Amino acid sequence: MLGHYDAVSGASASVSGMVKYAGSTPVGSPTNYAAEPMGVPFKYRITVSNPGTDISGNYFNCFPLPPGLTINTSPGAAGYITGTPTSVGSHIVTLLAGNLNYPTPATLPVVITIYPPNTAPVISAQPQSVSVLAGRAVSLPVGVYGSLPLNYRWLFNGTNPVGGGSATLSLAGVTLAQAGDYHVVVSNSFGSAISEVARVTVQEPSSLDLRLTQENWTNGSFQFTATGPLLTNYTVWGSVDLSQWLPLQTNFVIDGVLRYNNTEAATRTNRFFRVSFGP
User: Fold this and answer.
1) Which CATH number does 15-115 carry?
2) b/e code 58-82 from CB counts within 10 Å (16+ = b)
3) pLDDT digit string (tens) for 224-251?
4) CATH superfamily, with its number, for domain 122-203
5) pLDDT mean across residues, the chain
6) For residue 149, cis peptide bond before it (omega within 30 degrees of 0)
7) CA separation for the pair 203, 176 (Å, rounded)
């Protein structure tokens, strides 16, 4: 940022999103999703990465604009989307930022949702399950719209309160004891909403055991499961004589579980398999 402006410095620039404003003060970080009530003043600003200094040549646009909103597309304007929304709906729009000295502007698709005033919370983006090594940080964000103020109550394994009461649950340096199910209850004066459950799986980084389990022969295919370390490559090897081994498949495994299905088992009956892990 340079004052209240971003300058679009050419091919290396990109639209990073839009930021909500309260008067002349930005609120939060750039986002690709905005949800605001109908009939209440709306003010967001388009932001770009790699800001330059040629502010007078900048131009911005947002299209198609939801009813009641406007943007100044003249060169030198600051990229504010303002107005008072007049109808309810969810709109996929394109943010555009360019500079007169460069031929191609940058664009980004975003969603602007206008909801009725006096609305109970509605969850628009559910928290997602994650699998991490012990000691790593975990963030579970939830997307919600509804009349302000919104209250967030995160729960661990159904009943245990956890977190600081915001739209993102942040766990620093997770331990095995923190593995489990998390969900959030969001409420305001008009009602409440309950999110889906997000499961946090935590594994010790020192676990180097690699095991083959669940061997199965079904419809001419041979399947097995390899379990072991997180966040590394698993390679399945094949051999017909236990002497020469050829790599059959390599996958980067996030959660420590690789399921392998060999469809040539019916035609190549003399075959042995093993699995290794590492770079």
Assistant:
1) 2.60.40.10
2) bbbbbeebbebbebeeeeebebbbe
3) 888 887 778 899 998 988 889 999 999 9
4) Immunoglobulins (2.60.40.10)
5) 87
6) yes
7) 7
